[in-house]
Amino acid sequence: MNESEIINGIKSALEKLKENDKFLLETHQYERTITHKLAEYMEPFFKEFDVDVEWNKGLDGKDQKMRLHGKDVWVVPDIIVHNRKTGDKFVAIEVKLSRASTPVIEQDKVKLKEYKKQIKYKYAFLVIIGVSKQTGESEVIPI
Question: What is the rounded CA–CA span in Å between residue 50 and residue 81?
Fold first, then answer.
């Protein structure tokens, strides 16, 4: 599976989210609630992998950490596509709602770059989901 196929899978999942859970987008629900539903809709596109939300453990059961701005921080991507049994890390996704500020979005871009560099995810994406008046306007940004 290449980057273009991954983007198409995420976009298809975003369409399902918009079709089936528009209420969540229109009523300013919490990012984690929306992220959970998006991950569910991603599962059919990544059948050979596990799709999880807020995953923070390594195979050894310990919290994963990385260096960011000179500090050790926990690694907790919003959504990951991986193999739970082997520890293979395929895709890390950070999700932001369209109302997020530019500095918050930029910070997630930095985290995603480091997920690839330090934690060895093969792909990383920032997904911006339109809410309220921007419902249904989403963007998938490869990092």
Answer: 6
Which domains does the chain carry?
Answer: 3-142 (3.90.1570)
- Judge whether 93 and 100 are in contact, CB under 8 Å: no
Burial of 36 (0-12, 13-18, 19+ CB in 10 A): middle
Residues in Cβ contact with 27 at an 8 Å cutoff, skipping those fewer than 6 apart: none
**Other beta carbons within 10 Å of 70:** 5
Contact (CB, 8 A) for 17 and 38: yes
pLDDT tens digits, 101-110:
999 999 999 9
Residue 35 burial (C-beta neighbours within 10 Å; 0-12, 13-18, 19+): buried
pLDDT digits (tens, 9 = 90+) for 20-69: 999 999 887 889 999 999 999 999 999 999 999 998 777 677 778 888 88
Residues in the chain, total: 143
Phi and psi at 104, nearest 5°, equal: -65, -40
Hey, is 143 helix, strand or coil? Answer: coil
**pTM across the whole model:** 0.92
